[in-house]
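Quick check before the chapter quiz. The format below is the same one you will see on the exam, so make sure you can read both the input and the output lines.
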Amino acid sequence: SSFASCAKLTSVTIPAGVASIGDYAFNNCAGLSSITVDDANSYYASEDGVLFDKNRSVLMQYPQAKIGTVYTIPNTVSSIGQSAFSYAANLSSIVIPDSVTNIAISAFFYCSNLTDITIPSGVTSIEAGTFYTCIKLTSIVILENVTSIDDSAFNNFSALTIYGKAN
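Here is the expected output.
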């Protein structure tokens, strides 16, 4: 939680020497619109202002104030990190590719304008707080491989419809 709740932080540049970024490092940074990683960094990368591990297989942090209402996760991503999209109020739609097999705890926590989402077939569980307080989320498609949904995965909804879909 190194920079958590730093409301006036607008951009971050991660230098080549940074080898570890802890959980919730940029959580609830209301003004954060871009994260840039030095190309020489051996552990992390950024693409279009979004933070990834070096191989771009883990999406670690989508900046809360990033401009745009739709985000398509790159096909290299297999895991969406803990609280990766938390508080991303500008997003109404997130396209998750079939390459994603893991969605961590609170990944979409308080995405207040997210309206619909499809969980890809490789995902087998929906963790605690994944969609907590996504108050405009009205439709979610869960493909056949999801075998467990945590009790608190979908909290604070008024009009959510969950659809199952077989391939």
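If your answer matched, good. The first strand starts at residue 11 and ends at 14.
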